[in-house]
From TrEMBL:
Gene3D superfamilies referenced in this protein's UniProt entry, alphabetically: Multidrug efflux transporter AcrB transmembrane domain (1.20.1640.10)
Keywords, alphabetical: Cell membrane, Membrane, Transmembrane, Transmembrane helix
Protein name: MMPL family protein
Entry's transmembrane regions: 18-40, 191-210, 217-239, 245-272, 293-314, 326-354, 375-394
Keyword Manganese: no
Native species: Mycobacterium kansasii
């Protein structure tokens, strides 16, 4: 390899030789990646990932609660707020009940709705103290910031917007999930504005520095070609679900691509014009430009890409989602800065579009460089002091992740928050939830006491404004449930019933006297019954004697009957006995004897029985 080859490496010569095909190839690539798949803003909305860290203890606990209660499996919470200019009445309740039914019917987007205001027992806990506002907590499908989560928020808002509230009543959809959705939409809408303002600023600065319309347009061509290609490549990867995506990726990638592309274009054009001003021809100036900038472009680009990739190791999803897309996008920008940007310089230099329009003043920069080399220590200390001035604000800086501070106040979620804060404390719209889990059924009095003690101890913690639990459905202890109150209340019914108890005592005394008299009567009756028993015993003995006597009479009558039966038979068959005076009395005697004999036999049968 000769000295000429050392000053003009093969890659640089290839870029110069194939400048036009490289430009055409990059144009085709840019068109392809932006036409074959939707724009990156659409991909960010349709393939968005959640912005909440799923491995955080709070997220794990929230989903564990939803699983245990079989209510929800996401971390998206939306608050439905009703506000009126007068205390909410029956008409507001009917409107609220209709909204609840419609929301609960949307099983795709609404997983659970905590209807406290619809239950008379817990209604006071979900209504403001002035009675002019009420709220309901809704758990929607999909995690916060994800595609399904944003769709669920939009579905809830559509149901509320399509309703017709009574006069004087307004309904708002707010809460953490709604705030995240509004923040993403605000970022999408501001993206094109940011890009437009950035382009205008770059044009003005380049026009001031280079004072050449052609140079400004060429720089913008390089920057937007690299940026659109990087956006298209990342859009393809996101569309194929090969990497996580969010609206912040679009903003971060676009900003980095514009900033890096502009810097690299300025490096190239500035070095080219310096070489041309030094008297070099266009070809030599090209190689001087390339040799003096490629390592700077690679070094700075890879540094930024590496730093961006480190965001992938962050736990917070806001930062984690930015890592890989930003790094890959910067690699595309670096590739463009080392290929298509020099190719544009080659083509433009053939027409003299990049030649300097005025002499570049280098005396000031040379003086700064000379001073830095001559007095490195003092200049380092002075630079460090200037940097420390800017770092003085770091100790007092407070990082906030409250998204309400960073989005416009006219967005629906911020309007809903403002309406809620007119009647509720700020914590009511962002409640912290504590679940107590046990290995047995806690629906008993002893466990209820333990749960109330837990709530009481938590309420004593500094920073706790209000606590609602099963023992405190209204946010405060249930009336007439404290032990001192119960003890004091025990004497009241006793005093109220004292006269009644005295009257009943008098009745009991009278009853005791009546029972004494009854006992005397019973004793006398007992004596009479004893006498009656003795008399009955004697009667039984007499009856036995009478029975023996009757048995003897029966036997004698039977003997007499046997003696008189022949005579009675003779007289019975005498046809003229009735006309014979001697026969007639004997006939009557015979009939009486027959009757006596029958009675005696009957009596004998009765005695046997």
């Amino acid at each position: 390899m000769n000295a000429h080859d050392d000053t003009r490496p093969r890659f640089m010569r290839a870029v110069r030789t194939f400048a036009v095909p490289i430009i055409v190839a990059w144009l085709l690539l840019t068109i392809a990646v932006n036409v074959l798949v939707p724009w990156i803003e659409f991909v960010a909305r349709s393939h968005a990932v959640t912005m909440s860290p799923q491995d955080a203890p709070a997220m794990i606990a929230a989903k564990h609660m939803g699983k245990k209660f079989q209510e929800f499996d996401s971390d998206s919470i939306v608050m439905l707020v009703l506000e009126s200019d007068k205390p909410l009445g029956e008409e507001a309740h009917r409107y609220y009940d209709g909204l609840v039914k419609k929301l609960q019917a949307d099983h795709k987007h609404v997983q659970h709705l905590q209807d406290l205001w619809g239950d008379p027992v817990t209604a006071a806990g979900a209504q403001s103290t002035d009675g002019k506002a009420a709220y309901a907590q809704i758990n929607t499908a999909g995690d916060q910031g994800s595609t399904l989560g944003n769709e669920s928020v939009d579905a809830v808002r559509k149901i509320v917007d399509d309703s017709h509230p009574p006069a004087g009543i307004k309904a708002y959809v707010t809460g953490p999930a709604a705030l995240t959705t509004d923040m993403n939409e605000a970022a999408d809408k501001s993206m094109f504005k940011m890009m437009g303002v950035t382009g205008v600023v770059i044009m003005i600065m380049l026009a001031i520095v280079y004072r050449s319309v052609s140079t400004v347009l060429l720089v913008l061509f390089m920057v937007f070609l690299e940026m659109l290609t990087a956006r298209g490549v990342i859009a393809i990867l996101g569309y194929k679900d090969l990497l996580g995506f969010s609206t912040f990726v679009v903003a971060m990638l676009s900003s980095l691509a514009i900033a890096a592309g502009t810097d690299y274009a300025i490096f190239l054009i500035g070095r080219y014009q310096e070489a041309r001003q030094a008297g070099e021809d266009r070809e030599t100036a090209y190689y001087t430009m390339f040799r003096g900038t490629y390592h700077v472009i690679l070094g700075s680009g890879l540094t930024i890409a590496g730093a961006s990739f480190c965001l992938h190791f962050a736990r917070l999803a806001y930062f984690k989602a930015l890592g890989i897309p930003s790094a890959l996008g910067l690699l595309v920008v670096i590739a463009g800065a080392l290929t298509v940007a020099p190719a544009v310089v080659v083509v433009a230099s053939r027409f003299g579009l990049l030649d300097p329009k005025r002499m570049i003043k280098v005396r000031g920069w040379r003086r700064i460089g000379t001073a830095t080399v001559r007095w490195p220590g003092p200049i380092f200390v002075a630079s460090l002091l200037i940097a420390l001035v800017g770092m003085l604000v770091v100790p007092g800086m407070k990082i906030s992740y409250n998204d309400r501070f960073y989005i416009p106040q006219h967005l629906p979620s911020n309007i809903g928050y403002a309406a809620a804060e007119r009647h509720f404390s700020p914590s009511r719209m962002n409640p912290d939830i504590l679940m107590v889990e046990a290995d047995h059924d806690m629906r008993n009095s002893s466990d209820m006491i333990i749960l109330d003690r837990i709530a009481k101890n938590i309420f004593r913690t500094p920073g706790i404004e209000r606590i609602q639990s099963i023992t405190r459905p209204l946010g405060s202890p249930i009336e007439h449930t404290s032990i001192p109150f119960q003890i004091s209340m025990q004497a009241i019914p006793i005093q109220e019933n004292l006269q009644f108890m005295r009257d009943r005592m008098a009745d009991m005394r009278k009853m005791s006297d009546d029972l004494g008299a009854m006992v005397g009567s019973m004793e006398r009756m007992y004596g009479l019954l004893g006498q009656l028993s003795s008399t009955t015993h004697r009667m039984v003995g007499d009856m036995n004697d009478m029975k023996a006597t009757l048995d003897e009479m029966r036997d004698h009558l039977a003997d007499f009957d046997d003696f008189a039966r022949p005579l009675r038979g003779y007289l019975y068959w005498e046809q003229h006995c009735f006309n014979i005076p001697v026969c007639w009395p004997r006939g009557r005697y015979s009939r009486r004897s027959t009757a006596w004999t029958s009675s005696a036999r009957t009596c004998k049968h009765c005695s046997k029985t």
